[in-house]
Amino acid sequence: MAKKTSKSIQESVAYKVTKELKGGSHIASRQFAGGAHSMGIGRKVVAGKATDKLCMRYYVEKKRPDAKLSKEMAIPKKHKFFSRVKGRDVSVDTDVIECPRPEYEMDPKDRLRPVPGGSSIGTPPPPGFINAGTLGGWVWDLEDDSIVMLSNEHVLGSVAGVDIAQPGTLDGGSFPADKIGEVKRGIPRSTTMNNTVDCAIGDPTSADTYKSEVIDISPAVYAIDDVLLDMDVEKFGRTTEHTFGIVDDADYTTTLTSGHTFVDCFRIDTASPSSDWSSGGDSGSLIFSQQVIDPDSEIKPVVGLHFAGGGTTGVGCRIQNVFSELNLTTLCSGAFASFLDGLFDSEVTSEEVVVSNSLHTFTSADLIRPGTKIPADFFKLKRPLASSKRFHAGISRDIQSQLSKTKRGRMVNQFVDNNRDELLRLLAQDRDIQRATVHALKPLVAGAITTSDVLSRQLTELDVSNLQKLSKEVAGRTSNMKLKTSLKMMQALGKRTDGKKISDVFGIKLG
Question: What does the pLDDT average to over 158-187?
Fold first, then answer.
């Protein structure tokens, strides 16, 4: 049987009834709160094919099994309501369609504010020249716990204080009108010694400058991974924009036409649907694996930084080498560790662990969207620091290392790793969660100087109660079913622990 034409469908009673249903404000408010980003009317899709049956459509970024959804979150198979069109009770089928949230499409060569990864940037060119490269993305600088832009050294240079514009001058950018920051540091390339990286970072002019996402690929630089032979990869660059490739050499050594020799790099060949991998101006693009880190996530890990090639092939530095040389980490990892490290200072009261003003910039710029996993450089100490590195910086990482040695400890580490993005989102947005977190964790770590100081502390009944309250508070404020399930496991782990040392709870032997 042939399908009806669009015109005849929209004139049908079934369409009018479905439109009447969609117009009900209670339907929209309920389902948008339940996770759908869009609603509409269309054909019901069965086994990947559109049928003749009309339905109410709900569009979500990621489908989840009904068994993992609460009653409030689940979208019913049918809506039953009284229809004025038919003058009786009717039922209308529903359908859940998985697709990204719509957004304004960006041209990386336009002037973009805030500035996402993948956009055109440049420094003041020599007289008579114009230039542009690519801002790979925003990452965390462990030197001073701040968010910085990452690109190539041959794009930004390595001289601190040089202005950076977006877009680059090749795309109409000018100084000082389009300045977005200054070069912070870079790794100079050598023509006499082997190089492993071509990388540099820049400080933004303000928190209004950065947009954590990388155009068309990922919400931000949230994870990194090892590059592997035959890995499917993708990048977004200023010139060729979103392209796809495959790693055809995972241990690549090359000497460029400039005379610079690079070792411990990798080579990419173009893969469908792309005709080219890169071209001039794409330098500085981050290279992502096409595989998300988790089936329930939209995060793709970064594996490298594009710096050379052209046409159908390209060359990338390993992202681990880039992070090591510049002392960087991912946004989530850096922000979370920075927040935890701030709790160790016994002189800092809970009121002094605050959310910086940049939080309001993030939320107003719609960078923390419901259902989107976003990091934060939100947690700052109100009082000035004596140096760029806190005395306690890194102690949380040492504790994590100790936890990794036991089964129970690994459960905690896995809980944090799997849910760090959602936990940070809650910390950034919810003042009650911020206060509950500080109230529960600070007594366990405040004033500690060594890892052993923390692990040898004895849990009191009040400590256990505060941790349980924090867990329940988080569970009540999140719609993430994976986090809710993980919290139940953590709650079970915390039973009958009062009076015990933290090391005993996790089976860690102290020297």
Answer: 97
Cα separation, 449 vs 472, whole angstroms: 30
d(CA 258, CA 34): 56
Task: Please report the sign of the dihedral spanned by the C-alpha atoms of residue 412, residue 414, residue 420, residue 422.
Answer: negative
pLDDT of residue 174: 95
Alpha-helical runs (H) found in 346-493? 358-364, 395-403, 407-429, 431-445, 451-455, 461-477, 481-493
Q: Residue 323 class from Cβ within 10 Å (0-12 exposed, 13-18 middle, 19+ buried)?
A: buried
Helices (H), 286-343: 319-326, 331-342
Domains in the chain: ranges and CATH: 6-98 (no CATH), 107-329 (2.40.10.120), 331-506 (no CATH)
pLDDT of residue 368: 36
| String of DSSP letters for 357-374 | THHHHHHHTT-S-TT---
What end-to-end distance do the CA atoms of the chain give, in Å? 78
In this predicted structure, the answer to whether residue 12 has a pLDDT above a threshold of 80 is: yes
Whether residue 164 is predicted with pLDDT greater than 50 in this model: the reply is: yes
